[in-house]
Amino acid sequence: MKFLHRVFVLLLMSTLVLESEAGLGGIDRRPRRSVCMSRPYPARASMVPCMNRPTHTCYNYNCYPGCVRVTGSTTRTCRNGRWFGTDLVCKGSCCSSPPIPRGTMVESCPSPYTDGAVCTYKCSRFWHIPDSGSTTKTCSNGVWTGTDLVCKLKKEPKPVCSAPPSPANTRKKRCSLRSPPQQSDYCVYECSPGYVQIAGIDFKSCSYGAWKGPDLVCVKSCPSPYTGDAVTKYCRPRAPFPVGARCSFYCSYPLYIPVHGNTTRTCSNDGTWTGTPLFCIRARPCQALTSPTNGAQSPLAPYYFPATVTFTCNPGYVLNGNETTTCRPDGSWSNSTPTCTVGQCSTLTAPTNGALTTFGVIFTCNSGYVRNGAETSTCQAGGTWSNPVPTCTPRPCPGLTAPTNGALSPTGPNYAYPNQVTVTYNSGCDLDGVSPVTCQADGTWSNLVGTCRRYEETTIMPETGETTVMPETDETTTMPKTGCPSPYTSDAVRKYCRPPFRVGARCSFYCRNPWYIPVSGSITRTCSNDGTWTGTLLVCIRAKPCQALTSPTNGAQSPLAPYYIPATVTFTCNPGYVLNGNETTTCRPDGSWSNPTPTCTVGQCSTLTTPTNGALTPVGVIFTCNPGYVRNGAEISTCHGADGSWSNPVPTCTPRPCPGLTAPTNGALSPTGPNYAYPNQVTVTCNSGCDLDGVSPVTCQADGTWSSPVVTCRRNKETTIMPETGVTTKHG
């Protein structure tokens, strides 16, 4: 019965397999590729892999010279795990590859292996010699003749080594030696304490009676040089430090400064460092500096040793004192702040056809003239001016060409402001245009050069095609103006308008901001019917810079210097401080400020109380809560000194909540929840007949998690008698 049952199970399983393969598209009957394990090696034949075929799947065979094929295949192919074809059989006077007896090797054996070929053998091991047999084999009628060579061990003693060497300044770390040392015995070396390796290797072995391997070379070394927390070192070479190694030391710039010790130390022959360790201390910051009146300083605070500040004076002022000062290690300055006074130079005269500013620093030329020379001149410490007074030359106009049948007076070719050129015409001609024309301040001509036409010229009227004769006349007809010349602007003025400038055209003018300011003239001009511009020429002068400002104590300012009209500086105070004075100040044209720098004083607010289960900073600005509590309210409160109130009330600190708990099966929680928070404790109780599996009570911790995972209640172990065996077991 059991046998029939097994047969039924096997038939059922095969049926299921066939059905599953049919469901997947039928049984895959394609041949599967397999690897042939061994290659055929026919005697007296050579073997070569087939071309353009996968490796180890096809080979070509040929009989050795002197032999001919009797039967078998010359090509064997691996398919489905076996080789197709039959072994090649070669007959004749050739031999197969010569045999190699155990412990021997072929010394010489010329191929092909034809009848009469001789192969010579020798022992393959150095310490073996021939014992019996022949050292040659001969190919005779396809068979190698001669007895196999047998080798034996030499009876001479094996080579031994002397005691292992001991290079200077080294010691043996471990050795594997026999007595006396023999082949393959070895020793491992290391440098003696206080020495480091610079060449050689740490291993020597006994080989054929001699110790092989270069000696380990060790030289005296120094320990790593000491450096404090404020010192950084740079060594060449890096650790280990042999004799002659050099290390450089420097302080952590800019917070630390050296007080004693050497910045360079060298490893000496006795294994110690020259000099003494570098010792650095934290540098004391230097107090902020105030720029001199009518001057400036660079850079701005903060300053640490060895910062250097450079002072400069505004144009027209001379520096009295040292130009630079350096921050010392003790927080003091090497020089006091200098002053800027009005330069004591000779009075400058305005250039002809030009002008200069009140302090004789900036030169300008009148309208129609061009400056030849520097725009500014500064009074230097020696009482001399940096640049001479420039000259103002008339602005040139382009050359003119005399009209046909006419002439120019003067003839040119060089014309400049305010030259006038008269156009004259030959006898028998009339002038068609304006004469004279004037070279204007902007370098253009007031009108185009007219033409000269003969009397009684014939003109065809375009409207009718009739021919008329222009009569000779001495009357002068005044033509109305159709536009204005380009309005003149100086180097300090810019205009906004485009040609052509017809009657009614409007131009706007403005100074180059922020370097120039208007002093007179019109900012808008219109081309009138008479060909002239309304208003007067806009005149701008260079604005004087305002002196640098110092931020109020416990406050700040924005932006920083330099300042030119109409720059505005805004002042702010740190949290807990109140601004006394104007919040802003504006740079005026004369270089002064509209308002003085304000001050920042401690706000007069009531004392804040610490929140329950929390804390506040000494100045009562930042609130924090104790571990296990969460802040409800603002973190920061700022004193509004003006009305004595705080920006935010004192927050509260409430216990951090923990996630809700679910009572275990066959158990209960106390308290039942669902809201738990730090540092609540929950007790787990189990029903009668159940045991507690876990810890009770569990506590809500400061991070909002429970101290132990949820516990379970399982029934007590009960006693049950198994009916089959009568064995008593306990189960839960």
CATH class of one domain: Mainly Beta
Helix content: under 10%
Q: Radius of gyration, rounded?
A: 56 Å
Unreliable spans: 16-28, 455-480, 718-732
Question: How would the global form be characterised?
Answer: extended
Total number of strands: 67
Secondary-structure class: mainly beta
Taking the alpha carbons of the first and last residues, their distance comes to 42 Å
Q: Please name the CATH topology of one domain.
A: Complement Module, domain 1
With helices defined by DSSP (H or I, 4 residues minimum), what is the helix count? 1
CATH-level-4 superfamily name of one domain: Complement Module, domain 1
Strand content: 35-45%
Q: Indicate the CATH architecture of one domain.
A: Ribbon
Major sheet details: 4 strands, antiparallel
Please, what is the average pLDDT? Answer: 79
Instruction: Give the strand order, joined by hyphens, for the main sheet.
Output: 1-2-4-5
Q: What is the subunit organization of this protein? A: single chain
Give a written overview of the molecule:
Helices cover 3% and strands 37% of the residues. The protein has 732 residues and is mainly β. Strand 56 (639-640) and strand 57 form a beta hairpin. Mean pLDDT is 79; it is low at 16-28, 455-480 and 718-732. The radius of gyration is 56 Å and the shape is extended. The longest helix is centred in the first third of the chain and has 22 residues, at 2-23. Strands 1-2-4-5 form a four-stranded antiparallel beta sheet, with no helix packed on it. A four-stranded antiparallel beta sheet has the order 7-8-10-11, with no helix packed on it. A four-stranded antiparallel beta sheet has the order 13-14-16-17, with no helix packed on it. Among the domains are: 45-92, Complement Module, domain 1 (Ribbon), CATH 2.10.70; 104-153, Ribbon (Complement Module, domain 1); 170-221, Complement Module, domain 1 (Ribbon); 223-282, Complement Module, domain 1, CATH 2.10.70; 614-655, no CATH class; 662-721, Complement Module, domain 1 (Ribbon).
